[in-house]
């Protein structure tokens, strides 16, 4: 028996209709896609921070001249 919890209520997925199972699959797909997007955003933020740090160092060199 497979159960999921939505809004604090546990549901048995085996008793879902075909439509209900399709909706559950869509939710699971969107969850996976959201995780991928979060990973991409994290990589972007890390790279941006690195580039900004390097740029500040270069600007400091120019200012020192």
Order of helices and strands: EEH
Percent of residues in beta strands: 5-15%
Helix content: over 70%
Quaternary structure annotation:
single chain
Report how far apart the termini are: 71 Å
> Uncertain spans, ≥5 residues at pLDDT below 50?
none
Instruction: Name the overall outline.
Output: rod-shaped
Q: Please, how many helices?
A: 1
| Structural Rg | 23 Å
Overall mean pLDDT stands at 92
Based on secondary structure, the structural category is: alpha+beta
User: Using DSSP, what is the number of strands?
Assistant: 2
Largest sheet: 2 strands, antiparallel
The domain tally reads: 1
What topology, given as strand order, has the largest sheet? 1-2
What keyword list fits this structure?
single chain, 65 residues, two-stranded antiparallel ribbon, 72% helix, 12% strand, rod-shaped
What topology emerges from the helices and strands here?
Blueprint: E1 3-6, E2 9-12, H1 18-64
Antiparallel strand pairs: 1-2
Question: Can you offer a commentary on this structure?
Answer:
The chain is an alpha+beta fold. It has one domain. The protein has one helix spanning 18-64, and strands at residues 3-6, 9-12. The chain has a two-stranded antiparallel sheet. The radius of gyration is 23 Å and the shape is rod-shaped.
């Amino acid at each position: 028996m497979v159960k999921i919890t939505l809004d604090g209520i546990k549901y048995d997925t085996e008793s879902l209709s075909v439509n209900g199972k399709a909706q559950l699959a869509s939710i699971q797909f969107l969850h996976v896609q959201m995780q991928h997007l979060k990973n991409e955003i994290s990589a972007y933020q890390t790279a941006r921070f690195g580039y900004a740090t390097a740029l500040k160092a270069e600007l400091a060199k120019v200012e020192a001249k």
